[in-house]
Structures
1.
Amino acid sequence: MAVYKDFSTGTMIHLTGAWIDVGRTRPLLEKMKRVAPLLDDIESVHAELVRTHRKETAAEDAIRAIQAEQLDEDRTHDGKARGSFDVLTAFAAIADTAEQAAPYEQAIAILFPDGMRILTATYSDEAGRCKLSRGRLSPEIKATLKSIPSPDGTLLRTVMAWLDAGDALGALEERRAKLEAASARSKETSGAGNALRARNHWIGVVRAVVDMIELEAPQATVRDEVLGPLERALAQAARRSATARAGAGSAPAGDGGSATTSAAADTATPAAPADPS
């Protein structure tokens, strides 16, 4: 049987959003003498949940944006590095003499001392290796690269695009690490976590609202309009939980039950740290 703590934060926000919306079910709650006094509490926990969720989502969005930029820069880095290595290797291979091949082989040794292992390095390692390669670019190596045509104009431009992508990866990695560290510090300084507290407050208020609605014993149509979405969400959570347990080799759970029985289960089991997503 699913309980409220199985809900995602998004589901929680959606459910109480309907309860405080004058265009949806709020008017029905206002007519219930036992429930109406709880509307301020509903609004409070709803706002708290939205606020903490928005703050954590903003940090996660910023990190995801950086990771997307890293993927783009890494594609450029890997493509330009692999292409430059292949071109230099090909020119060295088709040279008629060792003397003709020497400038290309020297460029390979200077730019790619570890061969193509640079393509499987971490972003920080790629950035560091690019910095070293840039520092080893002598006028002679630059002249060799400049003499070779490429889609960028010359192979020198291609190599510089590769090194620039490595620099960008390093800068993005530093930004990502700082954001993750700041997010971790924020969670640590908030004790058990603002998001977890907001979820537990929500559960407590929703449990009280469900109890009061059951005491009111409203008409079936009214009850379904107010508690129906909550109970359907519980059923969906139960199905997800059953699927997860079946995948792990455990026996599947039963149906979602009613909002009342799920509230009791929440009461019987101390709230564990929930996914704040």
Note: Confidence is low (pLDDT under 50) at residues 250-255, 267-277.
2.
Amino acid sequence: MFIGREHEMSVLEETYNQPGFQMTVIYGRRRIGKSTLITEFIKDGLDGKLKCMTTNVGKWWGMGHDRVPTDIDVVGIDEIGKKAILGECKFKNEQIDKPVYEDLMNRKGLIDRKYEEVQYMYFSLSGFSKWVVENADAEKVSLLTLDDLYS
């Protein structure tokens, strides 16, 4: 059950629906539900807010293309449309830069080739480097930091 986060969810929705690049920051001590908040936000794809109807949300662990174990922090699946949303969460005191951005983009096809990855979402505590902001494909990539959630 997910209760008591209506304000945070509305801030995420508002930020996500604004045109152009938007930044918001999620922060807090360990184990207070930062990743759960993001997972619940992705589940809202059922209401048509995302690029597919997300019916299943979770994490993914497995072998990368290079046969080295890897993971994807958030995976949203649309079973009917055979589409997927992949997400990376970084709650560190450094911006998401080119290597982290490319790591997720290079995981295309890992979850199951029957799903077309239609959206990539990056969640960052400290924002994004200039390279990421300038090179993110606005059609497929959402850059989200959640700085105004608790202000």
Note: The two ends are 25 Å apart (CA to CA).
